[in-house]
Specification:
Radius of gyration: 18 Å
Number of helices: 3
Strand order of the largest sheet: 1-5-4-3-2
Strand content: 25-35%
CATH topology: TATA-Binding Protein
CATH class: Alpha Beta
Oligomer: single chain
């Protein structure tokens, strides 16, 4: 009986742990723009999709935010980082962890990440066209 209780407790604890996996290729994108401009576009994209910003570091171009519950998940905690490649190019990487862990969340977050990256594309295009 004690073995069963220990086994169940071990499963519950391991399901709650967040293991940081490297971001998949679809969670990365290069942009023709300086990091400050791309980071501002990323913040706007996150805001327009009504995701909850948890923390923001302007100096390091990093934002932590939460994507709410979806049909396949209890939501996602995401960290978007903009890294300058050179003075006119930047790399955006979105790290994802499932709010409920893999045991209760089956989605990947791919759809949500693609929406964020598309929002960055749209914002940068609008700025380039002089619409903003």
């Amino acid at each position: 009986m004690k073995c069963c209780v220990l086994f169940v407790l071990t499963l519950l604890l391991s399901a709650g742990l967040v293991v940081q996996e490297p971001p998949p290729e679809w969670a990365k994108s290069d942009y023709a723009g300086p990091a400050d401009l791309v980071f501002a576009a990323a913040l706007k994209s996150i805001q327009e999709q009504h995701h909850e910003v948890k923390a923001k570091d302007d100096a390091n171009h990093t934002v932590d935010f939460h994507v709410g519950t979806t049909a396949w998940s209890w939501g996602y905690n995401m960290r978007l980082t903009v890294t300058p490649i050179d003075s006119s190019h930047s790399l955006v990487v979105v790290g994802i962890s499932r709010s409920g862990g893999k045991a209760v969340s089956w989605g990947s977050g791919k759809k949500e990440v693609r929406k964020i990256l598309a929002g960055i594309d749209a914002e940068l295009a609008a700025q380039k066209a002089g619409l903003k």
